[in-house]
Amino acid sequence: MLFVISGASGSGKSTLLPLLRAVCPTVQWHDFDERWKGGGTAERQQLLEQWVQTALHTEGDFGLLGQCPLGEVLAAPSTPRLRGVRHLLLDVGDVERIRRLHTRGDGLATQDMLNWAAWMRAHEAYPDWRPDVLMEGGWDDMRWERWHDHPDVFWSGTTFDVTELTPEQTAQRILSWTTDPAAMS
Q1: What are the tens digits of pLDDT across the range 60-82?
Q2: Which of 4, 96, 102, 130 is the most buried (most CB within 10 A)?
Q3: Domains and CATH numbers, the chain
Q4: Percent residues over pLDDT 70 in the chain
């Protein structure tokens, strides 16, 4: 099983990684950015495919935390070979996101990041919401037709607002989600 925990910058992915490794050691958890060397949409999608390939060659469950929208995960060339995919979008309110990003001081506290977070929320709920954001300038090997051309496709995304939770509380909720998808509902 591939567990993807996605979210825009400031949603808490990096903070959660060591906690998830501690509370859910049966999953091999990784940060997408461990391999990220920069680039645009196509490079992000190619790296996602490399992560899917890694998951395929890993015994047991694999977890990936990164800015990986559900549509990209489903369109990665090797995704159908996985035993399964579960996708969770971590989200925080805009004011909290700005506070976190200001605290980090990495220059990502921008309107563009807030727009990306808003797009990710809409995409998690509606596969037809502005697919051009992923497709334009994307990697030619992506298989968009797996979801874009089929309005009846099962869209398995879940959004989890962690604005008011501690990282420890969030990790416990994610642990429940790994065993019971309804745990987030």
Answers
A1: 999 999 999 999 999 999 999 99
A2: 4
A3: 2-179 (3.40.50.300)
A4: 95
